[in-house]
Amino acid sequence: MTTMFFLIGAVCFVVFIFRYIRESRERKPMLINMLFIMAALLLLFIGTLQLQRTNTDEGNKKDAIITENIEKIEALSDQKAEIESKMEETVRTLKEDMAKLEESKTADVESAIKKAKEEMDKQYQANVKVAVDEAVVFVNINLSQRDHFKS
Predict the structure, then answer these.
(1) 1 CB contacts (<8 Å, ≥6 apart)?
(2) What is the mean pLDDT of residues 107-136?
(3) Which portions of this protein are annotated as coiled-coil regions (predicted)?
(4) Which residues are CB-contacts of 6 (< 8 A; sequence separation ≥ 6)?
(5) Separation between Cα atoms, residue 39 and residue 18, nearest integer Å
(6) What are the CA-CA distances from residue 78 to residues 26, 53, 82, 85, 88 (Å)?
(7) Is the pTM of this model over 0.90?
(8) What is the Cα–Cα distance from 149 to 151, expressed in whole angstroms?
(9) What share of the chain is helix, strand, coil (3-state, %, to 5)?
(10) d(Cα 36, Cα 34) in Å, to the nearest integer?
């Protein structure tokens, strides 16, 4: 629409200026040519206003798009910060869980060793008791046989 005003205005202006110049040489410029020149200038002025309004509208649209994009970038930055904090928290939690697991494994191994040691001690004590009992019985048998041979 804007270019149409410019084209029509420019063509009319050029055509009627040449007509006016040609008629002024003949010493009979017509009033209608002046009116057409004024109309052409008016069309050029309207085209300029339309172009300015169009540029302003496009500028406003571009500003709105830029503002919207800035808001999106800020939102993405906020999301990035949230994700990074969640990742750091997850890493920290995983490290704590790994440490707890390591401690529990160590505690499990220590308790297993302790249980095995207790079991071995019980077994050893039982074996010692059996050996002592057998030794006592053997000694008693030997003593009774010795007493038997002495008499």
Answers:
(1) 50
(2) 88
(3) 66-119
(4) 43, 44, 47, 51
(5) 15
(6) 77, 37, 6, 11, 15
(7) no
(8) 5
(9) 95, 0, 5
(10) 5
CA 151 to CA 148: how far, in whole Å? 5
* Residue 16 to residue 13: CA distance in whole angstroms: 5
**DSSP secondary-structure letter at 151?**
-
Q: What angle do CA 12, 14, 18 make, to 5 degrees?
A: 115
E strand spans, 22-114: none
d(CA 58, CA 135): 112
Q: Pull the structure tokens for residue 110.
A: 């220590």
Q: Give the model confidence (pLDDT) of 10-37 as tens digits.
A: 777 777 777 777 777 776 666 666 777 7
d(CA 129, CA 123): 10
CA angle (104, 107, 108) in 5-degree steps: 85
Alpha-carbon gap, residue 49 to 60, rounded angstroms: 16
Question: What is the identity of the amino acid at 85?
Answer: S
